[in-house]
């Protein structure tokens, strides 16, 4: 193999590794989850069965809270950042929900690393 061919193979492999897209499935919250504004909760995701995995140790994540509005589909209304900079391969992150959330049944959690994936819609009720 000549130097030019070796360089081509190397750059192709490097490009493929940089194009790695990970989509760990969120396992909590679920569609049955009912949370309350202001509460501390733990977001969890599957680190074992990840398309594109395993998750490299140096990948960090961001967790956003949003909601879906049938009148404004497909906008995810991701107004609240709940956590950032945590290791994506950890599989969980504790967060505190904002105190001033309205009651909705269409909240979603979006886990972002090098790709974003959303939980099923779930309920958060307003603080008491």
From TrEMBL:
Keywords: Signal. Residues 1-19 form the signal peptide. This is Fibronectin type-III domain-containing protein. It comes from Absidia glauca.
């Amino acid at each position: 193999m000549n130097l030019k061919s070796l360089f081509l193979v190397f750059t192709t492999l490097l490009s493929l590794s940089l194009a790695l897209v990970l989509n760990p499935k969120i396992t909590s919250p679920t569609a049955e989850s009912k949370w309350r504004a202001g509460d501390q909760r733990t977001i969890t995701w599957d680190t074992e069965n990840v398309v594109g995995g395993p998750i490299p140790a140096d990948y960090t994540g961001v967790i956003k809270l949003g909601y879906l509005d049938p009148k404004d589909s497909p906008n995810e209304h991701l107004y609240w950042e709940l956590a950032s900079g945590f290791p994506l391969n950890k599989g969980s992150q504790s967060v505190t929900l904002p105190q001033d959330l309205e009651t909705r049944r269409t909240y979603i959690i979006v886990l972002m690393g090098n790709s974003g994936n959303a939980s099923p819609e779930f309920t958060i009720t307003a603080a008491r």
